[in-house]
Specification:
With about 775 residues, the protein is of the alpha/beta class. The protein contains 24 helices and 26 strands. Strand 7, helix 7 and strand 8 form a beta-alpha-beta unit.
Length: about 775
């Protein structure tokens, strides 16, 4: 029925159809216009879900922006202001792209909440505003996707609630904005952080129409459909002029529509062919250009902000969004939030400290520079990196002033400092630290050294001297015990014959034989004679177990000693460095470590400070590395810097096992600087996102040489007595059990002998010899 009504509505000589109706009827019209080869410009009065229809029929044009365009505008603004939370209230009858919004914000890991306004219930609006009031901070965006009237009413309701925080950021996308409707709202301080994205502002219409009359009351009833109807006629006129200028011959043709015969000209077909070639910017809303899909490919949204001038607020354009260029902000927005850094250029102090800050090839790079670049991108600022003239990080001098980057920051010579600044109470008294971007301890790096005098005897190193003495003593003691047991045991036989009458091998009774048996067993060579008595076998059996354990321990430790470089007494901690005098300590002048040793009251730190007085002065890692390679100095710095230094010469450098002075590393700003909160919040975001950890891994994986043994002073130690006492204890217990067996043997022997004396000669062979 709907199709028939459409056909009857088409009169003869119809060439173009402009339809202002709902989306469902538009789809019917699109089908009919395609069959009739008639140009159709569709203007929908309700939101169309155009995600399904990616390409329209060639004869159909939709001059309005797609839902996808509105979604892109919203997401671009949210990205620009870097909101961490978005609270959305929407009316599905006004905005159809809520699923696309949900998907885009979820992909960006932005915390979101959605409230659908059903039947324009004021109660739902109040509940949503009450929840929003509890979230009030600068990182929260209230996204309002309602019509003009509901949006204004919502903002008025918010003002009437008189919230204690006015830092909520408001964002709304509207097809048509009448500034007069919003004036009473934006004049209140409660909604001064307002961004509107619109296709057209009512106040711009007279100018675009060339009307300068003071009477504009007719604009009160002007709708967005009126705008697109006007733009459609303008575009059709441009198409017609293009066709006529090309002197196209216009003929007629017959077509049928549900039984109705129509006479249509070929002009419509000519205009359809010219769609890709014709565009115009004479429209009220966006310029019109169709790129073959049937949708306007030159959509423009105007970005409007409530700006305070002379104590009052008004809506003014601050930027625009286009399908080809995206979001472009032309004016300063929200002066009291992070985007206040936009277009500002900062003078930033830094110094070289690989891998945090590296000056290479005429440019700065490193972990801290990666962080700085990301902050600049997020906060929209530019910067210039400068080095202090003294090449120092910053410490107090005798007259109470500060040198290095800390001094530059306190004197206002730079806006803030970037690098691995260690948090300290003394520095905190003159500057402010941002939130730490990393935590690191200090360590020691020195030249690897070996005990060359003992190198030729390295095969004896797996056991300590006490263990070797105990092993030698054990061989002698076990040999004596075995000899005694074999001579005392009644079942040992004699040395007169090789075998007893029963065919058993006679037990060796001599001391030399027993010592040789014990020694041969320890060397895993075996022996020609073994004890025939149970007690002797008991001792020898456990001696074999003892031998297996000791040989296994020796073999395992020997492999380590032959493959790992080590020193007899490595400096593995700050305390070890303070106790000796051959290796001198080094720290960078003006660093936090220098201040630590200078001000500390602990004995170890005071001793290090005394030693530093006679050490050379260094200001960078390269100079320190040259002194370390001489073998007379140990350099102290952040562990990460030391690990990177070690890659310069893995074979000759080693890092101490233990660290000290574990503190946070941060950037610095002058006291009470407005940059402190802005930088700190964004550094926390970088930490939570894992970017800083990624950059840290990047800088170590990018080095040409990676040292496999980062903790290089971890020396292989000889096994001490306490590490091998177990086998000795086990064998001691087994020896005790063997002596008990010897006593049992004697009892059995004498009882058997007494019984055998009463037996006949036939059974005498079963008795003891």
């Amino acid at each position: 029925m709907a199709e028939q009504k459409i056909c009857h509505a088409l009169t003869e000589q119809s060439d173009v159809l402009i339809a202002v109706t709902g989306c469902s009827k538009l789809r019917v019209l699109e089908q009919e216009s395609t069959e009739l080869a008639m140009l159709l410009i569709a203007i929908h009065v309700d939101p169309c879900h155009d995600k399904v229809v990616q390409v329209l029929p060639v004869s159909t044009l939709r001059i309005q922006p797609r839902i996808r365009d509105a979604v892109d505008v919203i997401v671009s603004i949210i990205d620009y202001f870097d909101y961490s939370k978005v609270a959305v209230i929407f009316d599905a009858s006004v905005f159809a792209g809520i699923n696309e919004i949900r998907h885009e914000l979820s992909a960006r890991l932005i915390e979101t909440s959605f409230t659908q306004l059903a039947n324009k219930e004021q109660r739902d609006v109040l509940l949503w505003l009450q929840k929003l009031k509890k979230l009030g901070n600068r990182t929260v965006c209230a996204l309002v996707l309602l019509d003009n009237v509901m949006t204004v009413d919502l903002l008025k309701t918010w003002s009437s609630m008189k919230p204690t925080s006015n830092t909520i950021s408001w964002l709304s996308v509207l097809d048509l904005v009448n500034p007069d409707m919003f004036n009473t709202v934006v004049e209140a301080d409660y909604v001064h952080r307002l961004i509107l994205a619109t296709s057209l502002t009512v106040s711009d219409i007279p100018t675009k129409l060339g009307m300068f009359s003071a009477n504009t009351t007719w604009l009160d009833n002007f709708t967005i459909s009126d705008t697109y109807l006007f733009d459609s006629i303008v575009y059709i006129a441009e198409l017609f002029n293009d066709v006529m200028n090309r002197n196209a011959s216009i003929g007629t043709r017959r077509s049928s529509c549900y039984g109705k015969q129509l006479n249509t000209s070929t002009l419509s077909q000519d205009m359809i062919s010219a769609i890709d070639k014709v565009s115009t910017n004479k429209t009220l809303a966006s310029p019109v250009s169709f790129g073959g899909r049937g949708y306007n490919s030159d959509v423009t949204y105007h970005i409007i902000n409530a700006i305070r001038n002379n104590g009052t607020q008004s809506l003014e354009p601050v930027g625009s969004w286009t399908t080809s260029g995206g979001l472009v902000m032309m004016k300063h927005v929200f002066s009291d939030r992070e985007q206040g850094l936009e277009n500002m250029k900062f003078r930033i102090g830094t110094n070289e400290a690989p891998p945090f800050t590296v000056f290479r090839g005429g440019r700065w790079e490193g972990i801290c520079i990666d962080i700085l670049n990301e902050l600049a991108a997020r906060l929209h600022f530019q910067y210039e990196l400068v080095r202090p003239a003294d090449r120092l990080w910053g410490s107090s001098t005798k007259d109470g002033s500060w040198n290095g980057i800390v001094g530059m920051t306190t004197r206002g010579e730079c806006d803030f400092g970037v690098g691995p600044f260690s948090l300290s109470a003394e520095r905190e008294s003159v500057i402010d630290f941002t939130k730490p971007f990393m935590e690191d301890g200090s360590g020691l790096i020195m030249k690897r050294f070996e005990d060359k005098n003992s190198k030729m005897f390295r095969t004896f190193k797996p056991f300590s001297r006490d263990v070797w003495i105990l092993i030698a003593g054990s061989i002698i003691v076990v040999g004596l015990i075995l000899c005694a047991v074999n001579n005392v045991s009644p079942t040992s036989g004699s040395d007169e014959d090789e075998k007893t009458p029963r065919g058993r091998a006679r037990t060796p009774r001599g001391l030399a034989d027993n010592l040789w048996i014990v020694y041969g067993s320890y060397m895993e060579q075996g022996a020609e004679k073994t004890p025939a008595n149970i007690s002797g076998r008991f001792i020898l059996g456990f001696w074999w177990v003892f031998t297996i354990l000791m040989v296994a321990s020796y073999t395992a430790n020997l492999a380590a000693f032959l493959t790992v470089s080590f020193s007899d007494e490595p400096i593995s901690s700050l305390e070890d460095l303070a106790k000796q005098s051959e290796i001198r300590p080094l720290v960078k002048s003006g660093s936090n470590l220098e201040t630590l040793f200078k001000k500390s009251e602990t004995e170890t730190h005071q001793r290090i400070w005394e030693m530093l007085q006679t050490s050379p002065r260094v200001t960078n890692n390269s100079a320190a590395l040259q002194l370390v390679l001489s073998g007379r100095y140990a350099f102290m710095s952040d562990s990460m810097q030391l690990k990177l230094m070690k890659t310069e010469d893995c074979d000759n450098l080693m890092i101490a096992e233990s660290t000290f002075n574990v503190v946070g590393l941060a950037f610095i700003v002058s006291e009470s600087s407005p940059l402190l909160e802005i930088l700190s919040v964004n550094i926390i975001k970088l930490l939570e996102s894992g970017l800083i950890e990624k950059w840290k891994q990047k800088w170590f994986s990018s080095t040409n040489k990676i040292c496999t043994d980062v903790i290089a002073t971890s020396s292989v130690k000889s096994l001490e007595l306490e590490s091998t006492v177990g086998p000795f204890l086990v064998f001691s217990v087994s020896t005790t059990l063997a002596l008990i067996c010897l006593a049992v043997e004697h009892v059995i022997y004498h009882v058997t002998k007494w019984r055998c004396g009463k037996k006949s000669d036939a059974a005498i062979t079963l008795c003891p010899e």
